[in-house]
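We store chain and fold; thus.
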Amino acid sequence: MIELKHLKMLSALREHGSLVAAASDLCITPSAVSHQLRELDQWMGVEVVNRKTRPITFSNVGQRLLKLADEILPQVQIAQADISRILHGQTGRITFSSECHSCFDWLMPLLNQYRIQYPDVDLDFASGFEANPHELLQNGEFDLLITADPIALKGVEYFPVFEYESRLVLSTTHPLVRVEQITAQELAEETLITYPVDKHRLDIMSKLFIPANIQPKNIRTTDLTQMLIQLVASGRGIAALPDWVVDEYEAKGWVTSRRLECVSPEGLRRTLYAGFRTDEKQRDYFEGFLKQLERFSKKRNSYYA
């Protein structure tokens, strides 16, 4: 039976040309090399190498075995390296889910940085927005959830990523731009342009309209942040977006924003969390992502700071 040791031995003989040099490379004795050659000769029924030549030459059978070694040994090395990375937590898969449409603006650059350090980790995203994401996280449907509404569940932890302000977004010519104190009742007279998610997941609905027991005149939805901004800029309605989104478009002069002081003097402030199963921290690659998320959290400057 041909074993890996025989293929390694033949490869070393080809490289070094003598039993002594091959034995030294393989960290075995020359007699061990001779013994392995005799085993091959017996199994093949012919001599595999001509030991009398200098350097050693290979018979047709030996040449075929060398071809096999060239095919098999690199694959074995790759498999051994992969197994080592698996055992040391350097490879795996992280599936993300988010209750925040606009979180990809800061999450994607973070993931690009992470890929540099952990190139063998597959990063994936759960499709769509789930009705019960926290339970799905607990049950292992995905591995990390970005949310502003943590829920106490067994085996699940939430790491506070950063605090943000959800700001009222208006066209630059909207009449409310000139109003000093905007009330919830005034906002209720407007069309709210937002993402197509359950109203309880929208900051302005859960923290302003629903507690006040009022509803906006109309609600219009779009999946795309840029389309949402364009609708607001053209006077089709108002919106409430996180500060990191508003910053970009306000700087371009497309829209203007106001603090939602009708919620509190400090505006509508929330905290984003990263939820994950506690046992995932045992994986080196997952712990590596949490550390990168923590570094990002410390560096992030709030819009209102």
User: Anything to note?
Assistant: The chain has three domains: 2-76, 85-160+270-300, 162-267. The chain has a mean pLDDT of 89. DSSP finds eleven helices and eleven strands in the chain.
